[in-house]
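Lecture notes, part 5. Sequence design as translation. It can be helpful to think of inverse folding as translation between two languages: the language of shapes and the language of residues. The source text, in structure tokens, appears below.
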């Protein structure tokens, strides 16, 4: 397994297209380009990765939009790892 990190939305898109990742854990709130913008760009790729959105907020409009936009799931950042 390979893990690659990014510190902004724009960089996240570049990292995914460079490394052709299978799964992306994507924060909703990021600098440059928010998670929904990154999700849209990733889903436009020929072979898009599965995207799991991360948020510190409970279900909200962003989560609904992410799931409607093709995110596989979402997780709360404060959730128990099990």
């Amino acid at each position: 397994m390979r893990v690659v990190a990014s510190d902004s939305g724009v960089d996240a898109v570049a990292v995914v297209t460079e490394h052709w990742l299978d799964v992306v854990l994507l924060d909703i709130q990021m600098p440059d380009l928010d998670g929904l913008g990154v999700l849209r760009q990733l889903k436009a790729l020929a072979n898009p990765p599965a995207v799991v959105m991360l948020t510190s907020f409970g279900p909200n409009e962003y989560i609904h939009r992410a799931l409607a936009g093709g995110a596989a799931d979402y997780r709360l950042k404060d959730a128990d790892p099990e």
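The translated text above is only one of many valid answers, since several sequences can fold into similar shapes. Residues 9-19 form the longest helix (11 residues).
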